[in-house]
Amino acid sequence: MYGIWNNIKKEFQFGIRELTKQRAKNKLFQKIGYDSYKWRFEVRRIPEEK
User: Of 20, 21, 26, 48, which sits most exposed with the smallest number of CB within 10 A?
Assistant: First the structure.
């Protein structure tokens, strides 16, 4: 699963969980628009919880 990582706050944001990086990126764009292109947002793999 992939989510949106905020490099400033050092946390995952927006509750986005998708199977591919591209889907996560598209979902972020739908949610916040062109602000999604800012450097602070990065698509990362969400660590598996046991």
Answer: 48
The two three-digit tokens of residue 50, written as one number: 């046991």
Output the DSSP codes for the chain.
-EEEEETTTTEEEEEEEESSHHHHHHHHHHHHGGGGGSTTEEEEEPPPP-
d(CA 8, CA 1): 21
Q: Which residue(s) pair with 4 in the sheet?
A: 13, 43
Phi, psi of 22 (to 5 degrees): -65, -40
Q: Which two tokens stand for residue 44?
A: 């990362």
Q: Is the CB of residue 26 less than 8 Å from the CB of residue 4?
A: no
